[in-house]
């Protein structure tokens, strides 16, 4: 919920407060059920897969909203798909007026990143990782009372992987490890394939997750138009009762209820099909090294080179995957405990990295700017800040993963640790690429474990 002050108290919005305009507010697009987007105005280039065949979109359901946008399920109309024919469904992510300006006029590369990713030329079209990315199908501009909104069209998804994990944990409270090792490998392999494609398109994702959660990776169930038709009949879309807030606006406050799509099938936890999405913070690889730290990367996922304000590139995505790999095993436990005495959070972060992975190589000191180098490193290249007795010790990687040996074989755990250490290589110059990790024998070997295979 969102709150806003009014003359006689506080008015509580049920969802995105779409009555307010910038500056001072995001300016969410005020969309209604049944609203039709016609005469679509687009930015060219890029051209997307559905751009030349789509006549209009009709909103049929609200799927959700977040800080940057609200998301809607819509029916797509083409010249060959009149109103009385079988519906074709898409998801439309409509950016707020503020975020739209950031993309269209400002430093965000989202529009062009999505264009590069859906390129239909070789070698992009035949890359094995392409099918593991959620590609934009279309885009258009929409004008509201708040200004101009940029809208992206995607195939509809139900749950992201984080929501799926939470659902499965709730339904299986006694299960120690949610995924088998082969199930974990399946998730890591698909994410690496997606990153391989993103990096091949000269992009860096930089935002695989939010606070180490798998929220930007979605479960893929293929075309679900038939299931959506049936579901909408049985579960009609809803809006909240119309309200009035005279101290805030002269217009009636009309809010549509978020109703995400469910999983129409119940896939095995250990054979999920996934897609990497949300490229709002993607950066061109050729420009990344000049840009310094990337503020959109969640703190827990920041690689050493980001913490040290050094040059950075595609290896930051591999480090982030290594952190998420750790969290995937323990379900909601990041690899670095950043709690500590008041002071420099970056110093604590670096010390926790050293505690988990061992001493920083001397090469890291030379990568830093002079002010950062003198702040965090001694002349011999060792870190100045150490984990104090007053801070709870977490232990190194082998110690933290030792409980796995009660469920999985020693060989499997040793190989898992070896692979995770490769992802969490401190020096980015030595950190393997997505393609190199995909060749690691650990990903293709069958594991011997006693975890659930459901």
Automatic annotation (TrEMBL):
Disordered: annotated span: 435-454
Database matches in Pfam families: Pkinase (PF00069)
Keyword field contains Transferase: yes
GO CC term, one of those recorded: nucleus
InterPro entries per record: CLK_kinases (IPR051175), Kinase-like_dom_sf (IPR011009), Prot_kinase_dom (IPR000719)
Keywords: ATP-binding, Kinase, Nucleotide-binding, Serine/threonine-protein kinase, Transferase
Domain Protein kinase: 57-443
Keyword S-adenosyl-L-methionine: no
Stretches with biased composition (Polar residues): 444-454
GO-annotated molecular function: ATP binding; protein serine/threonine kinase activity
Protein name (database record): CMGC/SRPK protein kinase
Lineage per the UniProt record: Eukaryota, Fungi, Dikarya, Basidiomycota, Agaricomycotina
């Amino acid at each position: 919920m969102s709150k806003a002050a009014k003359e006689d108290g506080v008015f509580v919005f049920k969802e995105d407060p779409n009555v307010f305009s910038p500056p001072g507010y995001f300016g969410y697009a005020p969309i209604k059920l049944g609203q039709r987007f016609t005469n679509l105005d687009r930015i060219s280039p890029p051209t997307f897969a559905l751009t030349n065949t789509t006549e209009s979109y009709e909103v049929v359901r609200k799927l959700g909203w977040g800080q940057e946008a609200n998301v809607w399920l819509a029916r797509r109309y083409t010249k060959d798909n009149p109103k009385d024919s079988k519906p074709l469904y898409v998801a439309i992510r409509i950016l707020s007026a503020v975020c739209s300006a950031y993309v269209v006029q400002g430093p965000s590369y989202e529009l062009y990143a999505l264009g590069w990713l859906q390129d239909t030329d070789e070698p992009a079209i035949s890359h094995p990782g392409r099918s593991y990315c959620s590609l934009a199908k279309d885009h258009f501009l929409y004008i509201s009372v708040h200004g101009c909104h940029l809208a992206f069209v995607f195939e509809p998804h139900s749950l992201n992987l984080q929501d799926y994990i939470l659902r499965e944990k709730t339904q299986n409270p006694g299960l120690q490890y949610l995924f088998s090792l082969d199930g974990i490998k399946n998730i890591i392999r698909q994410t690496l394939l997606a990153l391989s494609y993103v990096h091949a398109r000269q992009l860096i994702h930089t935002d695989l997750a939010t606070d180490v959660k798998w929220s930007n990776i979605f479960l893929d169930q293929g075309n679900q138009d038939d299931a959506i038709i049936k579901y909408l009949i049985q579960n009609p879309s809803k809006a909240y009762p119309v309200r009035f807030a005279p101290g805030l606006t002269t217009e009636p406050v009309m809010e549509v209820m978020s109703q995400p799509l469910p999983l129409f099938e119940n896939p095995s936890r250990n054979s999920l099909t996934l897609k990497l999405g949300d490229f709002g913070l993607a950066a061109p690889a050729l420009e990344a090294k000049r840009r310094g730290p990337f503020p959109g990367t969640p703190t827990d996922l920041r690689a050493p080179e980001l913490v040290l304000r050094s040059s950075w590139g595609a290896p930051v995505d591999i480090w982030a995957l290594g952190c998420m790999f750790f969290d995937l095993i323990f379900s909601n436990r990041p690899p670095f405990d950043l709690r500590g005495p008041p002071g420099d959070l970056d110093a604590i972060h670096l010390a926790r990295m050293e505690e988990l992975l061992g001493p920083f190589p001397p090469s890291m000191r030379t990568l830093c700017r002079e002010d950062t180098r003198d702040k965090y490193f001694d002349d011999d290249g060792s870190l100045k800040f150490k984990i104090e007795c007053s801070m709870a010790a977490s232990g190194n990687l082998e110690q933290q993963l030792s409980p796995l040996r009660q469920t999985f074989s020693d060989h499997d755990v040793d190989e898992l640790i070896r692979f995770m250490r490769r992802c969490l290589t401190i020096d980015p110059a030595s950190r393997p690429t997505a393609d190199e990790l995909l060749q690691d024998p650990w990903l293709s070997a069958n594991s011997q474990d006693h975890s659930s295979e459901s």
